[in-house]
Request: fold
Amino acid sequence: MFNKILIANRGEIAIRIMRACRELDVESVAIYSDADATSLYTKYADESYPLGNPSPAKSYLNIDKIIDIALESGADAIHPGYGFLAENPKLGEECEKNGIKLIGPSGKVIHEMGDKITSKNLMKKAGVPVIEGTPEGVSDIEEAKEIARQIGYPVIVKASAGGGGIGMRAVYEENELVRAIESTQSVASTNFGDSTVFIEKYLEKPRHIEFQILADEHGNVIHAADRECSIQRRHQKLLEEAPSPIMTEELRARMGESAVKAAEYIGYTSAGTIEFLYDDGNYYFLEMNTRIQVEHPITEVVTNLDLIKEQIKIADGQELQYDQSDIKVSGHAIECRINAENPLNDFAPNPGKITGYRSPGGPGVRLDSGVYMNYTIPTFYDSMISKLITWGATRNDAIARMRRALSEYIILGVKTTIPFHKAILRNPNFIKGDLNTHFIDMYKKGIDEEMEKVIARDLEIENKLKSTFMPAKKIAAISSAVGSYLNSAKNQQMAKK
Reply:
């Protein structure tokens, strides 16, 4: 097993990886920008090293600096978590040059699956269902119009090198196509340095269902069942659950077999996710995430696996200790992503200082968090505060438990998505499991009205609780007094000696 792992990330995912390291008796190394100097994960690690400038390009995306720290600290492996460098092939190349193991797949696989056109063509060859569309990038407008006519409107224009829904444009009529292609090309060039776009059939109300994959370096590949990720805004997930409410044993077997086939065909190793769109009884390959997912805890809860530890063991060259028949789904789990955002203002980021904080607990509740009382959420990075996960014997039990946990979760000083999650969990269509990727837009009016009621109720509770949270100045004064007392006691002991 590795002696020391550097975590090339920050926040709650850094702490999550460090927890796995501790259970494996492996030392952890944290890296932090100036903006994260007081972050909880830097204290949790065995060692911490500064990166300097808080700009992502000069800190968490600075491969040369991260490799230098890994060498200086004596780390023999790097775990990139998710986001930042997690799907950057260059990190793997630099790790290999310097004798450091990257906890993840090969750079070749990351590159192939990061390009939507390449990955789609590979999946087609592997026998995995794909959505009808262009097999290569399009630039000629007249050719694009002809392709769209053949496929049939609506179609969607996507950036080949894209991710996170950036630059995607649905097109319902031919006169919209030229503008959509030009817009997507511009966004793709700015965000990904590659203006290549392609066209495929647009599914208007699909479900987003993904399968967790584990694959070792000895050719063993299994799936760890499914997750439903249809509650999204701007193609980014906000609430996930496992298993999908529509999942049957027969459908899981078919989709799981396709996911395993996909991983086997590309020679995948590590933990990863095959994402599908499901529509009217059919499913189609969407993309592969060659990393651990934000929503991995709900799979851990229903399968009793530790996916981060499995990732580390695979990178260490160990064989999977499970085969497919060992993977059982028990109960139901829901994850709410708690972001510092204003859900009534189009989810605008709302970073700032947390002036009051109380975390939920009790049976069946898990909280993956990296914040604390009086912590200031930086403006430079993703707005996620934490991930709240609940488990229940049934989906209704998990929903009821999440409602209860959200009612206990108090965060003052910044606006969060907690009211949004409370509203979603009261929505009749959500309760029925009637989901699709446009759920928020379809039921926006009712969700917003429920959120306004929730916020009004929460304000009353917050006003009652404010007096129970100690002001920052008072905390600082007490801390200073305690420090002075300890120094005085230490000086007296020294004088006696």
Observations:
- The chain has 17 helices and 20 strands.
- The CA atoms of residues 344 and 448 lie 7 Å apart.
